[in-house]
Queue: 3 jobs
Job 1
Amino acid sequence: MNNKLIQASLAELVGTFILVFVGGFAVTIAGQQGVAVPALAHGLILVSIIYTYGPISGAHVNPAVTAGLLVGGQIRLDRAVYYWVAQFVGAIIAAVVLNAIVPGTNVGQTTGSLTNSAVWAAAIFEAVLTFFLVSTVYQAAAFGKAGNLAGVAIGFTLGGSIQAGGTDTSASPSTALTRTALRGLQEKYDVYVVWYACLERDSLELEIARLRLTQAGVIPTSIAAVMAELNPTLAPVDSF
């Protein structure tokens, strides 16, 4: 592996980290400010990433974009593999840092309103939005149709797609992976809080963790039993 490929892969890692980190924080306040905040945050930071890291790696910062460019012969397979690894690593690091800064905070659901009721509709919707993004990358950047405004066109497309699909929209496997990983870290954190609250007889901490875990549907049977013994006045919860 040559130095230029290492530099390009690092640029993809850092760029993906920035996108997921900023986007994740924006989603945490989406409940108060609405979907416009994460849509603008993702779109604007992507514009910045493209102009900053584009000269180094092309600023794919999205496995779907890399896959699309690979299919179209715009990138070699070995480079695509390095980019994919870098993108997923950058996204996972962003998830860990986010969880360290705001543990237990919602940074985006791993399932949307269509996931359980119409999973194929949700998949098609994600595919269409991803097509919008990748096709814009092709026309604006790969084919040079947008010139120096390519970054603006791509960033606006991502922002518009999130605005259309809501905060559950990813249009990126790395973003979806990050939300899933961070959701798992949040659930583990809440489980530990439950056990600590049970041992310390801290009803307030127990109630807060119970509410979060109940919403996530991850109350283990043993924990539910201990919770009921500790505070019988709590509303019953389903367990598995």
Job 2
Amino acid sequence: MPSADLAGLSPADAAFWAEIEGARIIYVSEVHDNEMHHRQQEVILQGLFARGKQVVLGMEMFEIDQQQLLNDWQAGGISIDSLFAAVNWQKSWGVYSPAYRRIMEWSVARDIRIYALNAPRSEVRKLMEGDKKVIARLRFDALEGGFDFFKSQMVHHPGMRAGGIERYYNVQQLWEQTMAETIVKLAKKNPKKVVVVMIGRGHTDARFGVPAYVAQKIRATQVVVDPTLKNPQSLLANTSAF
């Protein structure tokens, strides 16, 4: 897969768009409660649309068993408030930012289809109860060094006990592998469209995150836009392609 160094480029720069030209999957990652990150997501979506790109939008924030509700809203059958009430949005995601609603409404107004990516809570509960078949049936290979990397990231996490790290890692893998599987399906179903993924930046590590799992099942140029901002006044992108 190709690689590029886009660190420090802004979506205001022509070079940014030149570098992501041809990408099939673009991860516009975020820290969930950071409004600058959400603003960058909007800029990238709007930029792709303005450049004539056909786009589908995948969202970590919805679980795959909520897709019919998303479909009903996108078809005009229910209001967005009804959708949010049905998925307990305010408690799960709305508390972080009003930007999700803004992005969703902008996208649907332009016929950009929105898809749920994440694992259903019922599957997470099964896994927590010891049923590892929910992961095994996704048929991804384990990522060498993944657990050690996860431990290094979580060792100082508040409330994380030594015995709980493995359980939480398993849940993380269920989330990431489910998202990867759904992204692969979207890319195959929409061969002429760019799959834009709204996702927490902790899931987008090129070695141990969702892109690494996607690469096991499909050959496609993937780009991760990491909106870590060194200067909060400027819209900087730390971006990697692989």
Job 3
Amino acid sequence: MATVVYENLKKFMFNPAVDITSAGAIGVALVEEINPTITTSAAYVSAVMGTSSDTELSEVSGTNYFSPGSLLQNVDFSATTESVIFLDGDDITWTNSNGTISAGGCLLYLSGATLDVSKPLAYLDFAVLRISVNDNFTLQWLSDGIITLT
């Protein structure tokens, strides 16, 4: 479940001009912080990359982890008759041979041509520091999806 859902996600979900289910539309960046105080009005994902003070997030670094993360594949929105909306996608794995990746959370963002036009959609807090040493780092989403909106 998302710790913070930015207004951008809600805005883009209902905008027919923005197809956030298309391949490569949503990116996932790993961040260092656990339980950060997040500015929900952060304007750009470039804030995560350290070029703005709009948010307190810092992107991780590690062997075979490349900024700005990875693109979410097979994105799907579904809704129930009870007006609950789910966002889901494939699990993501960063191959990490001979190195370490440590992350406290991840940021989902609308992927743009450049980081300056990418918009944050949601932040997911891992609650603990997740570390892979000489192994793969995998984000395995919950069975009921990445984000649930009611």
